[in-house]
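Researcher: Let's do a round of design. I'm pasting the structure tokens now; please hold your answer until I've finished.
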């Protein structure tokens, strides 16, 4: 038996943040299941740790989203049926199985497609994902039968991506694992998860954020590079990270992240670039050449103008706007009274890209869901934003029903659709304003109110500032997370982590 002198003292473990005790909306909502859970509620059932609960809820919500698509499964996706719009169950997946040559065994990027599209218009890693699903799809039966199977195979693969996304968010803010429920319960997540293949990039980006929070910049860069190989938007996270590392003097870590991202992106893209450059470049040329499209402010302007802007003009203006927003976010990062959290800036830069883009498809909300939760885990604001996105989700399908139903005019006319666009743009802007307010008034940031500095910041968490322009900025040293010795977060008792 060791002596009393040799027995180490129990290390002080920080109190996990339980939203049902710290968030009035979460507390009110918990009354539906019996009220806020106590500290020892999960004692004896430790398998149900917060991360596992979040993963199970995310899978359950994903399954509800599949049920919501059921009216389309038995015919709505085929034969140009208007019911896929009136039932709001549209998905690109079964349409592109036939339309992009997967049903015919064509190889993406290498084989030319019939018609005007010529080549698959998706980034390489998404194309690989689509091709793997095609390999797993039975090749017998009617075209409708194969399309149904292709959607089901993709749904299974995307469900895994959804679980990864939710788990990574739950583990990124280590003292706030229950914030992952915001991701898992997001209505827009369930409704849009199987419209397209965006969840692949979203899951990789969430995993990258987790790696950065664990002070593993190279792994962050590799995952971010893979995410960028699946969708363009993740690369924008390197912008605010550069400015944060500039302010904190963490150049080596930024270099590792940038190098990892570049190498990973090249490993995926270079073989296709070398042997099928025309097919590889289709995604980029298509993005430039496509006109203004659904969900964007540019569509409202075009449909209300007798002389709408040309595509080149919109490209130029949209690029200028996103550059201006990026410069504004950079200035905010350098001059804020306390260095902003990485998740806050990641959300703002992706939101700026979406808001200024010439298309804001309904599934793009998936890009923002995990970043919004990490940036501002406030149930009221998150649900306000989600309500706006659900309104737009219904609005776009009713508008398409109106435009495709002929003289019947089932659905929402153009003016009504413009109101739906305005609602979801304003909802995203509202959340941006709340995040900017938290940056300018860090004492109102719910994450920092709980005693943390930057849980998703990795090497930036609690670091000193070395470059802060201006005399109005406070000194750089951040407060410690909490009183007492720190411990490794992953070893805390899951029974003490009730929401």
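Researcher: That's everything. Go ahead.
Model: Designed sequence:
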């Amino acid at each position: 038996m060791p002596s009393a002198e040799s027995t180490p003292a129990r290390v002080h473990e920080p109190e996990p943040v339980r939203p049902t005790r710290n968030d009035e909306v979460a507390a009110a909502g918990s009354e539906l299941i019996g009220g806020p859970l106590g500290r020892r509620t999960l004692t004896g059932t430790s398998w149900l740790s917060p991360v596992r609960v979040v993963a199970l809820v995310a899978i359950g919500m994903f399954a509800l989203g599949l049920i919501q698509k059921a009216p389309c499964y038995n015919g709505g996706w085929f034969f140009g049926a208007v019911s896929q719009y009136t039932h709001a169950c549209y998905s690109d997946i079964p349409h592109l199985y036939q339309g992009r040559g997967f049903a015919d065994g064509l190889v993406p990027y290498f084989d030319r497609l019939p018609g005007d599209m010529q080549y698959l218009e998706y980034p390489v890693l998404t194309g690989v994902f689509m091709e793997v699903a095609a390999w797993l799809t039975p090749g017998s039966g009617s075209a409708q039968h194969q399309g149904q199977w292709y959607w089901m195979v993709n749904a299974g693969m995307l469900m895994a991506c959804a679980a990864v996304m939710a788990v990574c968010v739950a583990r990124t803010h280590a003292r706030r694992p229950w914030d992952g429920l915001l991701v898992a319960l997001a209505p827009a997540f369930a409704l849009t998860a199987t419209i397209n293949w965006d969840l692949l990039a979203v899951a990789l980006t969430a995993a990258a954020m987790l790696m950065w929070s664990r002070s593993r910049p190279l792994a962050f860069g590799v995952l971010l590079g893979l995410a960028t190989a699946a969708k363009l938007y993740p690369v924008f996270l390197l912008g605010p990270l550069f400015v944060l590392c500039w302010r904190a003097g963490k150049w080596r870590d930024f270099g590792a992240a940038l190098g990892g991202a570049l190498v990973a992106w090249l490993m995926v893209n270079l073989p296709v670039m070398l042997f099928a450059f025309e097919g590889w470049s289709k995604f980029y040329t298509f993005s430039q050449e496509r006109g203004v499209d659904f969900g964007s402010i540019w569509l409202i302007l075009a449909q209300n103008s007798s002389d709408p802007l040309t595509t080149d003009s919109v490209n130029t203006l949209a690029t200028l706007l996103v550059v201006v927003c990026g410069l504004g976010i950079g200035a905010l990062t350098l001059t804020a009274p306390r260095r902003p959290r990485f998740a806050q800036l990641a959300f703002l830069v992706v939101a700026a890209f979406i808001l200024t883009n010439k298309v804001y498809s309904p599934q793009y909300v998936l890009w923002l869901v995990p970043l919004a939760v990490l940036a501002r885990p406030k149930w009221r604001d998150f649900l306000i934003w989600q309500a706006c996105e659900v309104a737009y989700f219904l609005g776009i399908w009713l508008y398409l029903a109106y435009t495709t139903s002929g003289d019947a005019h089932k659905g929402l006319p153009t003016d009504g659709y413009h109101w739906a666009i305005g609602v979801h743009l304003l909802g995203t802007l509202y959340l941006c304003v709340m995040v900017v307010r938290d940056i300018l008034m860090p004492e109102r940031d719910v994450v920092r109110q709980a005693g943390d500095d930057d849980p998703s910041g990795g090497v930036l968490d609690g670091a000193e500032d070395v470059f802060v322009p201006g005399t109005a900025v406070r000194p750089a040293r951040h407060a410690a997370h909490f009183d007492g010795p720190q411990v490794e977060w992953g070893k805390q008792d899951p029974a003490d982590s009730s929401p």
